[in-house]
Amino acid sequence: MDDETEKKIRQTEAEFEKLIAEAKAAGEPTDMMEELLEGYAPMARHLAGDESADVRVTHHPGGVDVRALRKSLDLTQAAFASRFGLSVHAVRKWEMGVRSPEAGTLRWLKLIEMDVDFADRVEASLHRAAG
């Protein structure tokens, strides 16, 4: 993995930590945010080709009704995918029941379902860190 990728991962971790601190200061629950942060760096390193990254696949019971969530936000599939960093193709497959979200994506969808405003802030931070 190159230095630039490692730098971006660390910047994103710092953004997550900042959001968690802001949420704590506002009295908001942070358990799910802390879980996302804990899994972010190993996942990002693994996706960047670091085979030594400590990553394991887990399966979580239950799911998110993606269609109901998207409709509750009054968004098209394309707008939902764009807003939350997902592929339109995946959203369609989930809604048709052809595929299910993987564990990391399921956590992201649960976060969106629980607190869409916080999810928007996380997505904005990720864009800033990647930019």
Q: Evaluate the radius of gyration.
A: 15 Å
Structural class: mainly alpha
Tally of DSSP β-strands: 0
Globally, the shape reads globular
Number of helices: 7
The level of helicity is 55-70%
Largest sheet: none
SSE string: HHHHHHH
Mean pLDDT: 84
Distance between the termini: 19 Å
Low-confidence stretches: none
Strand content: under 5%
Write structural notes for this entry.
- The chain is an all-alpha fold.
- The chain has a domain at 3-60 and 118-130.
- 69% of the residues lie in helices and 0% in strands.
- It is built from 7 helices and no strands.
- Helix 1 packs antiparallel against helix 2 and helix 1 runs antiparallel to helix 7 (116-130).
- The model has no long low-confidence stretch (mean pLDDT 84).
Q: What characteristics describe this protein?
A:
globular, 131 residues, mainly alpha
What's a concise summary of this model?
The chain is mainly alpha-helical and 131 residues long. The chain has seven helices and no strands.
Write the layout of secondary structure elements.
Elements: H1 3-25, H2 31-47, H3 66-72, H4 77-83, H5 88-96, H6 103-114, H7 116-130
